[in-house]
Amino acid sequence: MTDPTALRDPAARRRLVGGLAALAIAWPMLQLAGFQPAALFGAGNLQVIGGFLAGFVPPATAPDFLALLAKATLETLAMATAGTALAFLIGAPLAFVTTRALSRSRIGPGPGRVRAAALRQCARSLLMVLRAIPEIVWALIFVRALGLGPAAGVLALAITYGGMLGKVYAEVLESTDTAPARALLESGSGRLAALCYGLLPNCAQELTSYTAYRWECAVRASVVMGFVGAGGLGQLMDQSMKMLNGGEASSILLVFLGLVLLADALSNALRRLLR
Amino acid sequence: MSFSLDAVGLVHPNGHRALQGVSLAAAGGERLAVIGPSGAGKTTLLRVLGAALRPGEGSVRLLDQAPWQLSAPALRGLRSCIGTVHQSPPIAPRLRVVTAVLAGRLGQWSALRALGSLLRPSDLPGAHEALSRLALEDRLFERCDRLSGGQLQRVGIARVLYQRPALLLADEPVSALDPTLADLTLQQLVRQSEATGATLVASLHAVDLALRWFPRIVGMRGGQVVFDRPVGQVDEAMLKALYA
């Protein structure tokens, strides 16, 4: 005869409470956000949306518009790529400082752990500040400082995305198997060497696909920033929308679609390379 | 003295007491086998000897230094002289065997040499030599995730042989190996200790291997050292009591 309390799953109550709490939080959120999907299908609203969308066909294909579109696409790609590259330069070192997976002072625990924890916390807070302000706000500021054009967008992306990359890199490094890196640190290896021999071989794929995904987000974000004057496809889209030229807008949207497909292909290729 | 523990006690953060009043010392070049039932504290003892766990009670001296009074750089230097063979080899699966072995000397290499060696292995002959001692030299350029459990364990041992530590710790080094390979591996660990003068401490489940390869046997049970004798003075009754 087994004691019935021995077979009671100790995690069950915690899971139930967690589930109920999630529901209790999510419901008021939906209310606050004015989430009423039925309104989309009201008769008047459908007509308005339909009329707006009808203007989108056929896509514009005039040669001089296509030339403009090509130039804007290149500008957007350049903005996203340069922005992501700078963001990497900001995020990677901060992640290296922040991640607990490479902490020497936590082994033992050893000397200097108060100072090390304080340093990690500082870097963590810096990452938070960097990503707390949306790139569009930075773009508005930099457009005033640097004038209209992609340079403002690049800086805005670098700052916000640097914060995001740093945070996620640090967490990916912590969530992978940290035993190899720890064993290296325990035999006197430096932190950079422990990163390269112990952690990166395990999580290079995940880090790469996240970076590629961020590049894809940067492409979209640079479009949005175009609306506030940071150049590229967004600025073109802004002009077309203001002139109520649905054909041009749909050509631009088709280019977006192509860019996202491109980002996906890039991510897949990189992952295959690192397998 | 290679190491000396004096009345060392350790309670893990989860409240489990792993070591209690452990006093143990060894001179350079000595070879000790630690035996005892599961949960006796063998792994914890080896981690204390590896300067990886800081005991809450008692004092620890490793290679004539007090590890927990050292500055961070000095502690790092001390750790680079201690090599540990882990129970499950902590090797990133995507590493090539050669890189995994060369990682043994990361504590002695500059960061620049370490990074360079990832692109172009900086000491192929050294890695080859360490692997050939464990009959694994034909796997030099294989990826570690293509190896069997026993092969991976030998890669972990080759890494420590290549490191050439002054204090060589081995936590169940042969648990994944067949009897022939287990014998070969222990022979190589002993030979390394003889050749370099390193002190060797190994925890072993297989008592017969401990008695065959080690001149000094330490029996542990419930976090305490029950006996510490030359192998000639260990008898059947002591072993029976240890595992009872």
UniProtKB/TrEMBL annotation, chain B:
Residues 3-244 form the ABC transporter domain. Signal peptide: none annotated. The keyword Ribosomal protein does not apply. The keyword Repeat does not apply. GO terms for molecular function: ATP binding. It comes from the Bacteria. Keywords: ATP-binding, Cell membrane, Membrane, Nucleotide-binding, Translocase, Transport. SUPFAM superfamilies: P-loop containing nucleoside triphosphate hydrolases. PANTHER family: AMINO ACID IMPORT ATP-BINDING PROTEIN (PTHR43166), PHOSPHONATES IMPORT ATP-BINDING PROTEIN PHNC (PTHR43166:SF6). This is ATP-binding cassette domain-containing protein.
